[in-house]
Amino acid sequence: MADERHAPAAGDAPARRRGQGELEAQVLAVLQQAPGPATAGWVQERLEGDLAYTTVMTILSRLHAKDAVSRSRSGRSYLWQASSDAAGLAALRMRRMLDGEADRDAVLASFVTALLPHDEELLRALLDAASADPAAADRES
After folding, report:
1. What is the CATH number of the domain that holds 43?
2. Minimal CA–CA distance to 66: which of 28, 112, 104?
3. How far is residue 123's CA from residue 8's CA, in Å, rounded to a whole number?
4. Which of 8, 17, 78, 108 could connect to 12 by a Cys-Cys bridge, CB 3.0–4.6 Å?
5. How far, CA to CA in Å, does 65 sit from each of 22, 60, 61, 96?
């Protein structure tokens, strides 16, 4: 027999599950608003919904593995700090996806041909600016 305590009330919409990327972006946004390094509990309190502490820790650990956040020991716990923003995290995902493909040329060609005209113009301008600034290329390496 189903447990009626967990069934949504009549007319209530079921809770929408957030994807991992969405949670990561939300955690990064919270950390960017922090006045300094923050505990996982501090992050948990500021996230929408009722995420478990272990879920927040999992997301923070994944972000740390991606170099999107840094951490330092504070007693028995960690203090977390954003080292990237949502755009940086998306770029990291794109680079990791590209690194996982055998035919980089084909992946990049497919990506570029699918760009909207405005995005293509922006990409061209960014590439031109990066090639004109050798220091920018060094920062990316």
Report:
1. 1.10.10.10
2. 28
3. 46
4. 8
5. 17, 9, 6, 12
Residue 40 CB neighbours (<10 A): 22
Average pLDDT, the chain: 84
pLDDT digits (tens, 9 = 90+) for 95-106: 888 898 999 999
Q: What sign results for the dihedral spanned by CA atoms 80, 84, 89, 94? A: negative
Q: What angle, rounded to 10 degrees, do the helices at 20-33 and 53-65 form?
A: 90
CA gap 2, 132 in Å, rounded:
65
pLDDT digits 0-9 by tens, 26-55: 999 999 999 999 999 999 999 987 889 999
